[in-house]
Specification:
Length: 569
Amino acid sequence: MQLTPQQLETVFVKSGLLSEADFETAKKHSADKKTPLQNILVEENFISDEHLGELLADYFSWKFINLRKQEIVRDILKIIPEAVARKQSIVCFKRDLVGLHAAMADPENVEIVSFLEKKTGLPVTAYYATERDIENTLSKYKAEVKEDFQTILQANIESLAGMSPEQVERQGKDLPVIRMMDALLDYAYDSRASDIHIEPQSGRTIVRFRIDGILHDIIDFPVSIHDLLITRLKILSRLRTDEHRAPQDGKLQKQIGKEKLDVRVSIVPVTEGEKVVMRLLSERSREYSLEDLGITDQDLALVKASIKRPFGMTIVCGPTGSGKTTSLYAMIKIINTREVNISTVEDPVEYHLAGINQIQVNPKVGLTFAAGLRSLLRQDPNVVLVGEIRDAETAKIAINAAMTGQLVLTTLHTTNAAMALPRLLDMEVEPFLVSSTIHLVMAQRLVRKIHPGCIASYSVTPEEVANIKEQLGEEHAKAVGLDRVGLRLYRGAGCKVCKNTGYEGRLGIFEILEMKENIRKAIMKHATADELEQIAIKENGMRTMLEDGIAKALNGLTTIEEVLRVRGE
C-alpha cells in the first residue's frame, strides 16, 4: 500500500523520526526517479524496510508481521493460488484455533478477506506486511521446482538420450531439455542462488548452486544429456553451438514472475567436456541499501559524508564475491539525482541503472578501463564509477580525475582497508596525490546471517571462550566484550525454510579507514599497510572487520564461526 506524501510526513516528520530537510530530500529524489516515496525512504537508508512496516502498521492501527521470521507450511501458503496472491499482494502464513492468518499489503481490502473466509470457512485475521517482504515470500510457491526438475529429467531421459544437439536447435518450446533448463533457472532463483555450476565429470554431470557464498550439490544427471543442455544454453545466450574448444561468454534474460532475471554465462572446455558457470543477477539484488548490507550508523555517516563531496575518491576493497559492486551501487543510489551526471565503466555491467551512463569494457576493440575512463572524462561527468582499478594507467587517470573536479568511486582487490593505500603507491601514483584525493577506504566481507525463524541462543563455556580468544587474540576479544560474565551467543537451529543450514541471506562486515591528517602524513613517509592500520586503530578509533563481525555475532546477526571463516578469505 502506497501512502501519500502527506501521510508519510505525518508518520516520519511530525513524530520526529526524520528531519524536514531529509524528508524534502527524499521527496525530491522520489520525483526525480519517479519512484514511490516510501520506496525511496528505504532504498536511500532513511529507514529499514521492517521499521517502515512497523511504523505504518502503528499509524493505521494494523497488526504487523515480518514474514521472514515465519516458517510457512506450503499447504497454508497455497490456500490462495499464486496468481491471485501476486495480484492482491497477500500471503496466508498460519492456521490455528483462532482461524486463518494472512499478511497483506492492504489489510483494509475487505473483498479479499471476505473471499478467504468463504473459501476456507474460517475467520481471517489480516496483518500488514511490506510489499518487499510479501514479494520475497511469494517465491515459496515455487519450492517444488526441484521436484519438477527431477520429474522432467526422469520422464524424458530416454528420449533425450537418442537426440543430437542439431535436433535441439531445430525443436520448439516443448522439448524436454528446454523445460529442464527453465526448471533449473527457476529453482536457482527461488533458492536465492548467485551462481549455477554445471560440471561434467566421468559418467555424470553435477549441478551445484552457490547460495550465500557456499556451493551446494543440487542434482546430477547422465553425461549423455550434458551436451544437449549446453547446446540449449548456447542458443539462449546467442553463442556458437559448433564451438567446443574455446571459451565463450554470453548472457540471457528470463522472466520470472514480475522480474526479469539477467544471467551471465561463461562456458569453458575442460577434460570431460564443457563446464558452465551462470551468474544470476536479479532486481532484488539492486534493492539493497547500505543499511540493508549491515553497515552501522556511525560508519554509514562517514560513507555518506564521503560520497556527497564534490570531488575526491572513495574506494571499496575486498576479494572477489565480497559485495564490492553492490556497495558501490548502493552509494550511487544515494547521490543519483537529475542534477548529477553519473557515468560508469565496468567489466561487466552487472546491473543497468536508470539515469546513469554505463560503459562495458571491451579489450578486443581497445576499450579498456583506462580508455573508457579517459573517454568518460570528456563527457562532463560529476561522478565516475570505475568498476576496478587493475593497472597503473587506470589508477593515474582515476586519481587525476578525483583531483581535478570529479567524485570517483572505485574498487581494489586488497584484504583490508589500509592495504589499498600502499597498493596505489605500488602502481606509481605519487604519495601526495594519494593523500590529497582519497577521502575514505572501505573494506568488506560477506557473512551468512542466522535465519531469524530458527535462531537460538546458547551459553558459552569457559573452554569455548578460551578457544575463541586464542583465534581472535586477547586485544580483539576484549574490545568486543567476550570477557563479560554469562556470555551467550547465537546460532540457527535449522528448519525447512533455511534447508537446515541455520542461515539465510548475507550481510557485510566492514572497516572504514577515514583519511585524516595523521594518515596523510604517514602516506607521505611511505608507511606500510600495517603501520597505517595501527594508526587508524589506535589514534583514529577504526573498528576492524573482525571486530565488526564479532559485534554482529554478539547481537545475534551471524555466528562467530562464520566470522572466523570469512576472516581467512
